[in-house]
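ok so i was messing around last nite and threw this chain in just to see what happens. nothing serious, just curious
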Amino acid sequence: MGETEKINIEQDIQDVEALIPQITAEKYISAKKYSLKTDIFYWEPNSSCTEEFTSPELSNVVFLIDISRNEIKLKAQLRDAELKSVILMRVDCAKYHTNPDGTLISGPHLHKYREGYGVKWAEKAEWIDVNNPLKTLDIFLKIINASFRSGFNLTLL
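result:
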């Protein structure tokens, strides 16, 4: 796949995100979500996984939370009955981010869905601690109102 095709596909994904009303995105973010996994989630070093969550309030939606460790990457997205995926929030540990209005954010930040922009906007997130991934995951799950049914823990290797 050529670079132009990749850019077009990424733009198509962003255009789909831009079509979701803000009120719907807020409803999805605030809905209580529970993992499908019933045993304890162990977050292993150098690993990456996608965990499924459901909400009793939104039976036609599956929420996917992408979780990576080493460089902390957390992303909450939803997949509705028509299998459209929309990123609602993501943690970013990059040193800088420029918002669409030109505002520069320095340090770890949180991207939040904004109608018309997808997750192009970010805000400073002092709570993101690259040296404490468990605390960062815990706070992120609280922000998106999600929980693992039996809790979670780090695997130390």
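not much to say yet. Helices lie at 3-18, 22-30, 133-143.
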